[in-house]
Write a structure and sequence with these properties.
70% of the residues lie in helices and 0% in strands. The protein is an all-alpha fold and 705 residues long. It has a domain at 1-118. Helix 10 packs antiparallel against helix 11 (165-175).
Amino acid sequence: MFVLALLASFALNASAGPASDIAAKMPADSPAAAATACEAILATGEAGLLELCAALRPPGDESGLPARYALGSLALHASRPGAEGQRKVYTAALARGLTAAADVEVKRFILGQLQLAGGDSWIPAVAPLLKDAALCDAAVAALEDIATPAADAALAKALADTVKPAAVILALGRRGVKSAAPAIAARTQKGDAAIDAAALRALAALGQPESAALVAALAAPAADAAETARRRALHLDYARRLAVNGRVKDAVAICRGMVAARTHAARIDAMDALASFSPKDAIPVLQEAVGADDIALSRAALRRLGAIEDPSVGLWIASRFAPAAPELRADILCTLRLRGDKAGAPLVEAGLADTNEVVVTAAAVAASALLPADRQAPVLLAALGPAAASPARAKAIADALGRLPGDAPTAAIAAALPGTASVDAKKAILQVLAARRGEAARAAILKAMDDADAAVRTAAVQALAAAGTPQDLPKLAGVAVRAADPEAAAARKALVSIAGDLPADARSGAALDAWASADAAERAKLLSVYGALGGSAAMGRVVATLGDADATLREAALRALSGWAAPEAAPKLLELATTAEPATLRIVALRGAIRLSRDASASAKDRLAWIDAALKAATRADEKREAVSALAELDTPPAVARAAALLDDADVPREAALALARMLAPEKPPKGAKLSADDIAALRKALPHLPAGDVKARVEKLLPK
């Protein structure tokens, strides 16, 4: 109630005084208050509005701000729906105020308010300003924004003697005032480049047939390439507008003439325009261009032709494949594929057999989607053999085979494998089957593992790594120990790959079963497999073999243990680091133990104990350095103490210092971390051993002064 009373009081007070008094209280605090104030000002009539116009001042003079606020609010208020009477009063008063105003900026402001309010009543007051150099642009904008026949007529009439004919011409073009075309023509070709440029744009927008010769003259090529392109674009806009206005033949003639001009860029632009408004007329023009010697033009024409929805187009494009240059054949196949045009289906096999360009093969592979679903795999498989000698061509075909949906293609690919003569093709098919997986793929891969060719067998083993199951582990174990490398090496990797998802103690089962029937050479290979697979049963076999009478097997067992994936091998390796023979194997064992001491799955206590044992067992500086490096990864107080003690070791002072810096002065220290007195003392002692650089600078910054 208080707000309503306040608004009512404001309205009474406002209506009691002159318009300037009301304006002095603006802007209002709310839309409702603003509306009340506007009503009060309008109640003062034309006199009040003229009073506000007279109170306007140029920008910078704040005394005129109330009048600006008021008139701006009134422009919106009076132009609301249902307020036609108020709008007429407002615009009539502002038209008089516009005429009376002396300052250019004030006139510009009033023009803007009239522009907002709209209507035709104030046009007589604005039209004379088209002869005023300072206000012509604002007057043109105001008249153009009214968008009424009266405003258009005022612009057209002013064209004969306006001070800025180019601005008026552009406005007439944007407004689509077709009757102004003769008047625009009369102002052109008199040596004024700006007028001619504006006229070309306007006439292009109007699209009047009688302007054809003039538009062609104004669009003549210029010395500047960019300007030539702009003119050509406008000439084609004119052709498009002609077509919209029903003069399609005239528009077609312009585009045909531009194509015949033999200018590369012009021909492409003209073909594009022609296809946009008259596809039927564009077809023969585009077909002719497809056969041009200019490959870029041929490709551009082919793309545009392919976008035309006419059944004859696909058949014609397909007929051009055989005689086409190799570089265009790929485009023909791509165009037909994008159209989804079955006319391209018969070309797929020819494209796949084309050995001139890899890109043709790739396009034919993509176009194979046009074939019936049950034909895609057979056609691609038939092409794979001849293409296998070319890795790029074979890959494109193999990738497509891998993407075919459903189980039927997998069965077809698997069935084709035994009858394929080319080794390269067999290898490619095996890669496809590995990617597709499934029981049909697995069965074909297993059969290929018995192929007469070692390269095919190796490829089959590699494929089984992706498509195999735990049932295949015994067969892989046999290959791993009885075949020669690289087949055996591939089998060892496949064993690890397939067994990786099994529990640790189940991984080595198949390989352990092979031990009893294996000879010494095969057992040596099995030991390396055990090392890769891991598990307690496998470790038991490896440890037992460390005492074998065969020196070769003992070494193989030690090397398998040194490559063990899990940290449980560390204690045995540390034992071997002091007892193994010959001495070179002690180094192998020691390095294996140090590697496992980095394994975060082991406890920090065990890792520190292993590092201590490694440091005691080390007889060379290299191994000591590796052990200290592993120490730095612990980042525990005992590890810090051990690193500090190692600063006195002549072999590793630098490594010990770096380890301390890593643990106590990391690049990103934990939040709230604080150094103890012992830590600071250790860092001070380490500082001389640190190499110059960021680490040393970080330690120096951390130490108390």
